[in-house]
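Technical note accompanying the year-one report. For the benefit of new consortium partners, we illustrate the data format agreed upon in the data management plan: each record pairs a sequence with a structure-token string. No post-processing was applied to the example shown here.
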Amino acid sequence: MKWLYLYISWIVALIATFGSIYLSEVENVTPCPLCWYQRVCMFPLIFILGIAVYKHFYRITIYILPQVIIGWLIALYQSVETYFPHILPLHLCRAGGLCYEEGANFLNIFPLSLLSLLAFTLLLVFSFLNLKNDP
């Protein structure tokens, strides 16, 4: 069962990474500073988790967990900034990126900040499930 959590985590990282690249390179959505910080946390995971899946190294979770938590916190901040801007003192998402604009949705349905939060939440859940099943 542990291989399933690791494999799904790798698939989530792949989808998030290629979705982010698609939006910035094909759809010309300029990433804001928060998007760039999330990319720094997400992009290496496709290689780290891919190698872990290939080598059956299930204990990788303890090493990627800080990276996933930092990415999740940034995604949470961006989501709060998007939906409750009056709460936060700094507005980093509005600084130079198009992800904050109304039309910056994936498939015109899903806001980018929520997709990022969903991806990091899934990685966090599967990381904890993998840790729970660690002998």
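Partners are asked to follow this layout when depositing records. The chain has a mean pLDDT of 82.
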